[in-house]
TrEMBL record:
Keywords: Kinase, Transferase. Transmembrane segments: none annotated. InterPro entries: ATPase_NBD (IPR043129), Carb_kinase_FGGY (IPR000577), Carb_kinase_FGGY_CS (IPR018483), FGGY_C (IPR018485), FGGY_Carb_Kinase (IPR050406), FGGY_N (IPR018484). It holds the Pfam family FGGY_N. It comes from Neoaquamicrobium sediminum. It comes from the Bacteria. The keyword ATP-binding does not apply. This is FGGY family carbohydrate kinase.
Amino acid sequence: MVDGLTLGIDFGTSAVKVVALRGDGTVAAHASSGYETFKPAPDRAEQEPEDWWRALSTAAASVMAEIDPASVIAAGLSGQLNGIVLIDADGAALGRSLIWLDQRCGDEVAELERSHAETLAAKVSSPTSPIAVLPKLQWLARHEPARMHRARHVFQVKDYILWRLTGAVATDANEASATLMMNLASRQWDAALVALSGLATGHLSPIRASTEIVGRVTAEASAASGLPRGLGVVPGSGDTGALGVGCGAFAAGTAAVTLGTAGHIVASVPNQPPALVPGLWRMAHVTPDRELWLGLIPAGGLSIAWLRNLGTGFAGRPFGFDDLERLVQATEPGSGAAVFLPFLEGAGTPWNDPSRFAAVAGLNVTHGAGHLVRAVYEGVAFNIRACLESFEVAGVSLERVHLAEGGAQSPAWCQIIADVLDRDVRVVAERDTSATGAAILARAAVDATDLAVVVERSVRIARVHEPNPAVRDRIDLSWKRFQQEAGRTN
């Protein structure tokens, strides 16, 4: 193993996270810095690319102040999938980025499903969704043609940062496969699918290996970001591939559940023939011998943030996490028959319906605050169970469940998830798993060791939550209520 630290830089939905990782998987330093999401209309979600750059400079400066810069040997990138930045011939961003939460392209999705469903199923093997880049670009071509005409290049979030840091133009297969424009079998851009967007493949970044150093930090970028000049940078992966690595969902049989703003449930699967898998997204993993299958809960951790923000209207301040934890622990499993559908940003797996709304059902005058709070925690856990059942129906055998990120910091929520899944839940020690995964991918670029060995060495388990048999009957009854409510339309 090569001595030194690797950096992992992950651009999530609300913040950039930077970690400096030792070879044994322990974190030497970490920092984060947030940025704003603009919502000019209910179906829109935009971010300023310059805000990402400023946030990186802030977080990187904090990390570099805690370590010896000379000890850093490589950096890897990760980022929210399906956020796009249009760049003109002078290298300027053409307006804000449309991020993955942007839902304005519903008409374009419907047209793709009417006219190109078979082609997309055969080449992409994932459902058509407003989340994806292809229908977003179609919307821009229809509604903002001047902006599209001026575009010399279309970056995704982390690839824009790679370009700003090194001048290199590159992406990775995991990132590209989520766009609906990459052929999953060949792991190359598909010219016919790209043409549907109104662009050509030359507008998109070449697809390179996740563990290949494709550029080095320039003097200008070093001065602005605080990262060492000449530092080698790998494209890394979209956040799904990186979190799969950072959570240990690289070998077969392990499902990783992360509860950040969204909830992601991922598992590694050997490459499969082209086909849609109901409710799941198929995408390339970080090595060419396997795929990553994804179940999505758009408002995973966001459901808890929403719950906290209710406190502003009642108490003049957000509810604290400790307040919610006490209410959950003081309320019996089953939430007194109250059921929460966590569809605050639409329904993901297995329904794949962005038009669905969240709901609370089964309330009466006997319910208190604890019932509502626990119902929200249980509702997200039931959605996780629905995702895992989708994997099993598709023939993916899952032996282990790893849990990470923000939701994993709540012991009460971890126990609820173990009870709902009726299986052990292993909590990953490092919280920022996509950033950790990006650092592991950077390590693989400079270390002669196989990536599987690096992952095994680097992913550490902090604790294990076992299901409580005494609550199984109540949980099963609540699960049936959840299924009934989720089966209704709204």
